[in-house]
Amino acid sequence: xxxxxxxxxxxxxxxxxxxxxxxxxxxxxxxxxxxxxxxxxxxxxxxxxxxxxxxxxxxxxxxxxxxxxxxxxxxxxxxxxxxxxxxxxxxxxxxxxxxxxxxxxxxxxxxxxxxxxxxxxxxxxxxxxxxxxxxxxxxxxxxxxxxxxxxxxxxxxxxxxxxxxxxxxxxxxxxxxxxxxxxxxxxxxxxxxxxxxxxxxxxxxxxxxxxxxxxxxxxxxxxxxxxxxxxxxxxxxxxxxxxxxxxxxxxxxxxxxxxxxxxxxxxxxxxxxxxxxxxxxxxxxxxxxxxxxxxxxxxxxxxxxxxxxxxxxxxxxxxxxxxxxxxxxxxxxxxxxxxxxxxxxxxxxxxxxxxxxxxxxxxxxxxxxxxxxx
Length: 374
Ligand code: SAH
Hints:
This protein is of the alpha/beta class.
């Protein structure tokens, strides 16, 4: 069942949300203090305690993943290969004697993704066109677990599940990775947008190729790269939360320099393991850069969200660079959001964060739940 509109005609009263100033109690006050603020520990789900998945695999642990992550602990290559035999030829033994793959080899990374999606999320047919970025599954899944925690806060600590929860994925990409994981993990309905027609065609192919996704994920084309919501959402439409992994470089040159750095890093590791780096990691232009980089993208999103404060209960975006956070916080202050969060993500060596904001006060959030989730 598609649910991007509330089932009753009266969404929470948001008439004043756009112009409401933060109150003394509002966490959006006090910039210097806020900049250091991190979200408290995720609240445990009351009805279904987090499953302990740390027993999968055994050799290495990937610290910092969310307690509900299916990817804690080392990858269980035996189990993955049992489901996806094609992965076998990419598995190597590291100098520490552990099983791994050469992360500098795009074919190996893709095979690992295919295996993870099949084993953990029941996605049996997943592929992306050559040149598109291959999303790291554990990090993408963690973003969604944190979104589930945010939604649980308005739901007495219980994660709201099922298709009545509607998520807007801005920049769904060729992989449709957030809708796939979010739907399989929590049953949520997704609307995914993108301006890249080829990426949307790839996402559509994945949806068609796997059972049960046709009604769960809807794709829409954004015609204007400078615009995030207008043109792809309807005026009376509401989403419980938005998700976004923006292009983070500010120019093609900066993106190329970033890729080179990444390759140096991966190349060294690959060489240490006896692997051979392949210099075609790439990523399409639209995936890698946009005007103003991630700060520009997210600032535009904040500006648009201010015009449509009732579009989402929570707006969120990934922020790749720590140095982007202060500028984004300033934009949120200028937009007079009711509350904001900066949630740390960590996956192995990689650190990033989610920024989340809402224009709704606590009563409006409870009303939202009452109107949409009952
Ligand atoms: N969500 C995927 C892809 C992220 S790459 C993942 O996490 O792996 C960023 C995506 O945003 C690209 O597919 C790019 O085409 C898209 N994009 C860039 N500007 C956009 C806009 N204004 N609206 C929607 N998508 C946009």
